[in-house]
């Protein structure tokens, strides 16, 4: 097997790539990078990922970082079971939702930012709840017009791939999900699907259950 994913069980960006691979039934080697023990800042790992983040995806001699770039690559190389709608308006809407998570929420609730917030006197929980709530209010509003079974109609897309890990984080930080009925309904439906079960943090070799 020539495909390798460097990830961390509870990293939402790694989780997105795992979901994409699972939905397309693509097998890969999984190499855990322990973020809590600084595995992402070792000299060896920084050669693969200069930002010192996960995921990193390696296909033979081709190495790639950034979950969206990786998912694009996977989608282009393995087009069966498309994760991006063919309809351009739906595609644009999908990226709109995905980017709210990717740019508007996830980077702001990353470990180093949570540490900074705490040093500035705002608890990690309050900070995370604020940024997740703001993003989810926007997404819930968009979903009122776009959702079918999933975020954009009935096709599972990159928007759903981003949403599921973000809901997990929202629950970790005790965000009141009753304000987000469509997000909750879609998340519940997706979490029952075998690909999402396979990609879940608790199913990974580096999972620390009960944390
Ligand atoms: N935009 C990047 C985000 C990657 C990212 O934020 N990874 C986090 C885990 S979800 C990470 O490695 N954090 C460790 C750190 O920043 O020290 C992507 O989509 O791949």
UniProtKB/TrEMBL annotation:
GST C-terminal domain residues: 87-209
PROSITE patterns, per the entry: GST_CTER, GST_NTER
SUPFAM superfamilies: GST C-terminal domain-like, Thioredoxin-like
Single GO MF descriptor: glutathione transferase activity
CDD domains: GST_C_Zeta (cd03191), GST_N_Zeta (cd03042)
Pfam families: GST_C_3 (PF14497), GST_N (PF02798)
Cited Gene3D superfamilies: 1.20.1050.10, Glutaredoxin
Ranges for domain GST N-terminal: 1-82
One GO cellular component term noted in the UniProt record for this chain: cytoplasm
Top-level taxon of the source organism: Eukaryota
Biological processes annotated in GO: glutathione metabolic process; L-phenylalanine catabolic process
Family: Belongs to the GST superfamily. Zeta family.
Stated name of the protein: Maleylacetoacetate isomerase
Lineage of origin: Eukaryota, Sar, Alveolata, Ciliophora, Postciliodesmatophora
């Amino acid at each position: 097997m020539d495909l390798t994913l460097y990830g961390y069980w509870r990293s939402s960006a790694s989780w997105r790539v795992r979901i994409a691979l699972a939905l397309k039934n693509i097998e890969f080697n999984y190499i855990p990078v322990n973020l809590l023990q600084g595995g992402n800042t070792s000299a060896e790992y920084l050669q693969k990922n200069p930002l010192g983040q996960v995921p990193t995806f390696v296909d033979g001699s081709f190495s790639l970082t950034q979950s969206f770039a990786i998912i694009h690559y996977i989608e282009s190389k393995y087009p069966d079971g498309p994760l991006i709608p063919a309809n351009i308006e739906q595609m644009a809407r999908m990226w709109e939702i995905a980017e709210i998570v990717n740019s508007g929420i996830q980077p702001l609730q990353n470990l180093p930012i949570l540490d900074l917030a705490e040093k500035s006197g705002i608890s990690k929980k309050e900070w995370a709840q604020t940024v997740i709530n703001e993003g989810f209010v926007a997404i819930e509003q968009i979903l009122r017009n776009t959702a079918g079974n999933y975020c954009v109609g009935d096709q599972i897309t990159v928007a759903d791939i981003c949403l599921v890990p973000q809901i997990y984080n929202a629950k970790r930080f005790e965000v009141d999900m009753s304000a987000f009925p469509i997000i909750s309904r879609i998340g519940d439906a997706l979490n029952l699907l075998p690909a999402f079960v396979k990609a879940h943090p608790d199913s990974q070799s580096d999972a620390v259950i009960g944390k």
